Amino acid sequence: MNPATRLTLTQFLIEERRRFPLAAGDFNSLILNVALVCKRIARHVAAGELGGLMGSAAAVNIQGEDQKKLDVASNELFLEGNNWGGYLAGMVSEEMEDPYQIPDSYARGPYLLLFDPLDGSSNIDINVSIGSIFSVLRAPEPDRPVTVDDFLQPGVNQVAAGYALYGPATMFVLTVGSGVHGFTLCPQLGEFMLTHHDLKVPADTQEFAINASNSRFWDDPVRRYVDECLAGKTGARGKDFNMRWIASMVADAHRILMRGGVYLYPRDNKDPAKAGRLRLLYEANSIGFIIEQAGGRASCGARPVMTVKPAALHQRVGLVFGSRNEVELIERYHHHPLDRRSSDPLFHERSLFRATESRA
Ligand SMILES: O=P(O)(O)OC[C@H]1O[C@](O)(COP(=O)(O)O)[C@@H](O)[C@@H]1O
Ligand SMILES: [Mg+2]
Ligand SMILES: [Mg+2]
Question: Where is substrate annotated to bind (predicted)?
Fold first, then answer.
């Protein structure tokens, strides 16, 4: 396409409204304001050490995690950028214990915004790709202050989800339930331009992503899957796999959206009090919606993650997403666990992770 005739995000949303006239005008304002917030965050990220927002904020969030200055600043930008437009009934964030109420001086609206303002915090200070992730739900009763229960909706209720990726180029990736589209920030125009129309995740892959330092805590189905990937051509899969781990889920998700792959942050027995590492409302549902809209699959191991009814705002969940055939295989391994006393050699001498553990 001639770059000069590419649609901007605004033009794209206007076109989408023509196709789906039921969506209220408020909806476009919501998405455009989220995108504006992401542009502001992108500027801070690009400034790096010169911008004064690197390093620790010397505070701990509701997740019990150390906050970085950029976590705190990005959270503020999300709140201030979206509290005034009259399209939201309230917001929740990974960084805040309770829902954010729209101030009485502003109008309330029909939507709820849920977000992880800065994903990949451990990569902020080392100049590696990070991002912001968001999800949009309908408010059950827009005319009153929001309650925690309003946000405890399964992912299948989402009306939109997206992320910004602050990488070598800044991108905004969006689904409003009719496919997934990627927009690249044009620094000259300050506009997100449609560059990746109707993204699709290939059904098959030879690439997986997992934090292997947790291998001794994994359940059998995950161990079996990874062992088989590592065994490559010599094992049950009969093909070699490559491994990637960026430690910014948003960047791992973006790679998978671009060329396929599977990402696993499964529930494990490292800390039995935690049902996983990633947050259902701020990370798993949004990425799940995007991946499924692109033809992939997102699961908590045994079932689609978007069918989980949340019980708490900051609930964690095991997450597996990406190329459909791989995720379905992992789900099958959860439904039909292999007997650990199996004579399959993969579970004994040839298990690379097991061999490492027994030496440790
Ligand atoms: O430190 P680990 O175990 O590699 O975990 C990395 C994971 O943690 C996360 O950074 C969590 O997100 P936050 O930075 O928003 O807390 C994911 O993006 C990423 O996949
Ligand atoms: Mg995150
Ligand atoms: Mg975060």
Answer: 119-122, 211, 263-265
- Atom 4 of ligand 1, nearest CA residue: 247
Cα-trace Rg, the chain: 21
ipTM greater than cut 0.95:
yes
Residue nearest to atom 6 of ligand 1 (CA): 247
**201 inside domain:** no
CA distance readout (Å), 234 to 207, 224, 230, 258, 346: 16, 15, 9, 28, 10
| Structural domain containing residue 131 | 3-196
Q: What's the CA-to-centroid distance between 74 and ligand 3, angstroms?
A: 9
| Residue in 121, 129, 244 to alter for ligand 1 test, most ligand atoms within 8 A of Cβ | 121
Distance 129 CA to ligand 2 centre (A): 12
Residue 202 lies inside a defined structural domain of this protein: no
Please tell me whether residues 355 and 226 are part of one structural domain.
yes
Give distance in angstroms: CA of 235 to centre of ligand 2. 34
Q: Does one domain contain both 190 and 254?
A: no
CA 306 – CA 288 distance, rounded (Å): 7
Answer yes or no: is 302 within a domain.
Answer: yes
This prediction has a pTM of 0.92
**What mean pLDDT comes out for the span 71-92?**
96
211 is in an annotated binding site: yes
The answer on 322 and 261 residing in a single domain is yes
Please give the pLDDT value at position 354.
Answer: 44
Question: In whole angstroms, what separates CA 228 from the centre of its chain?
Answer: 26
CATH number of the domain to which 257 belongs: 3.40.190.80
Instruction: For residue range 25-34, list pLDDT tens digits in order.
Output: 789 999 999 9
The answer to which of 35-39, 122-126, 232-236, 354-358 has the lowest mean pLDDT is 354-358
Kindly state the DSSP code that residue 283 receives in the 8-state scheme: I
